[in-house]
């Protein structure tokens, strides 16, 4: 989350925007405990959904509306401007499957894991238009891959947690600045005061097992390819990395981790690619909603955009900057191959398609392009059996943390990374 990048003009950028949904109770508890000088998160606000045709729908602040049972509440209050009631009705069997799905029940996720989300929707009779305009964009932005390449179990679990657990589960707050500055830095400083040492940008490379092959007794790491090895004799090891990194570690250690069937499974894990852009314009732009999701711009690519001039209130962007818009693309390999100038042009043109001439008239002062190839966990059909548990079965002093870990907590994304970290 906090790995930061810079624009050609030296302005900071991050690897995408990170929302904190109403269900992130453990992270909200952490933020309270950090006792920060000011609340790092925005209030809840209405969100927009767009296509190249214009505004397609709005998500209200559900907690500000009359309280209804979960499911009917979201159905009644969410506005899809261009879908007719018969189309929407075809989603009912799927919504019932979502509402009935509780991934904390053992076997619930596994029962749907080998089926793709797209196939499940087709089987349940969801009309093509409803799939393409509601559910495909939901998985492209929630699981970072198209429904045909996502486990239905993962999609049901994700949707239950973010949308259906309570009427107001989808209410979301955003960081009022970069997450690295507002949350991670003060948190790290407080831990350092309590004696924790962090070695940033140091990659773990090789692992040594004891003769019984049931503990890791040595780890060698390096800060940069040509730097000397740093060696550790650890008591406990927590792998807090994504699926792609875990797979690489197993591949790079065939004589140790690769000898263990539990770890060989991880070689199947892989990541999907994300492209984060931040556009700095020379004048203010009028944006109806500060956080937005989109569909229909590039086949198989998810998209969100944010008005950072509104979310990062009080930020000093520089005198020549009037508006800062972040546009992020998910499952974006087809865009990652463009050069930075072409990416910035494309992002600006997409924004202009939604907001009109005002964007075309504005001058682009600076732009950040952050590429994250294969960096986000991919919940492909059948992936559940390849995911690690919190406690390693083979290695007694090894645990796993992160959003790729199997847990009965039922949370997702940053909340799950935090919760599994606490469990580990
Ligand atoms: C563009 C984008 C938007 C997102 N939006 C949201 C959102 O709105 N809300 C939300 O909750 N979540 C969001 N997420 C997901 C969220 O970022 C992840 O759920 C979360 O970061 C997972 O945390 P993690 O600790 O499992 O893995 P990561 O955050 O990926 O951390 C793993 C770390 O391991 C490090 N690492 C890799 N290899 C090694 C090695 N060999 N040695 C040492 N370290 C290594 C990596 O550098 C990385 O820092 C988004 C992600 C992206 C990319």
TrEMBL record:
InterPro entries, per database record: Amino_oxidase (IPR002937), FAD/NAD-bd_sf (IPR036188), Zeta_carotene_desat/Oxidored (IPR050464)
Q: Which domain of life is it from?
A: Eukaryota
Species in which this protein is naturally found = Corethron hystrix
GO terms, molecular function:
oxidoreductase activity
Pfam families recorded for this chain?
A: Amino_oxidase (PF01593)
Protein's recorded name: Amine oxidase domain-containing protein
UniProt domain Amine oxidase: residue ranges:
8-424
Give the transmembrane ranges.
none
């Amino acid at each position: 989350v906090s790995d930061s990048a810079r624009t050609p003009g030296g302005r900071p950028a991050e690897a995408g925007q990170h929302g904190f949904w109403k269900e992130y109770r453990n992270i909200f508890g952490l933020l309270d405990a950090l006792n920060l000088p000011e609340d790092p998160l925005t209030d809840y606000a209405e969100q927009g959904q767009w296509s190249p045709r214009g505004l397609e729908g709005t998500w209200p602040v559900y907690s500000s509306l009359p309280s209804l049972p979960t499911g009917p509440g979201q159905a009644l209050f969410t506005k899809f401007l261009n879908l007719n009631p018969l189309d929407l009705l075809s989603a009912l069997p799927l919504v019932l499957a979502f509402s009935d799905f509780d991934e904390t029940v053992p076997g619930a996720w596994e029962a749907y894991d080998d089926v793709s989300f797209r196939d499940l929707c087709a089987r349940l009779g969801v009309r093509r238009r409803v799939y393409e305009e509601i559910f495909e964009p939901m998985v492209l932005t929630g699981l970072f891959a198209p429904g045909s390449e996502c486990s239905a179990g993962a999609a049901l679990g994700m949707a239950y947690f973010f949308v259906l657990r309570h009427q107001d589960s989808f209410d979301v707050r955003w960081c009022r600045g970069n997450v690295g500055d507002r949350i991670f830095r003060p948190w790290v400083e407080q831990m350092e005061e309590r004696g924790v040492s962090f070695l940033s940008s140091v990659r773990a490379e090789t692992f040594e097992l004891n003769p019984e092959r049931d503990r890791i007794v040595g780890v060698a790491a390096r800060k940069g390819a040509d730097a000397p090895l740093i060696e550790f004799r650890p008591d406990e090891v927590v792998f807090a990395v994504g699926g792609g990194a875990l797979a690489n570690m197993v591949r790079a250690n065939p004589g140790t981790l690769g000898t263990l069937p539990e770890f060989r499974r991880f070689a199947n894990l892989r990541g999907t690619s994300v492209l984060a852009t931040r556009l700095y314009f020379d004048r203010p732009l009028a944006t109806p909603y500060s956080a937005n999701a989109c569909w229909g711009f590039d086949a198989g690519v998810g998209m969100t955009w944010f008005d950072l001039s509104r979310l990062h209130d009080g930020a000093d962007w520089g005198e020549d900057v009037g508006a800062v818009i972040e546009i992020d693309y998910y499952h974006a390999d087809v865009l990652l191959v463009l050069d930075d100038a072409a990416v910035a042009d494309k992002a600006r043109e997409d924004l202009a398609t939604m907001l009109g001439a005002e964007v075309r008239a504005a001058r682009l002062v600076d732009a950040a392009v952050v590429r994250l190839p294969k960096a986000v966990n991919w919940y492909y059909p059948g992936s559940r059996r390849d995911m690690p548990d919190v406690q390693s079965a083979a290695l007694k002093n090894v645990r796993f943390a992160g959003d790729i870990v199997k847990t009965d907590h039922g949370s997702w994304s940053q909340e799950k990374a935090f919760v599994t970290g606490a469990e580990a």
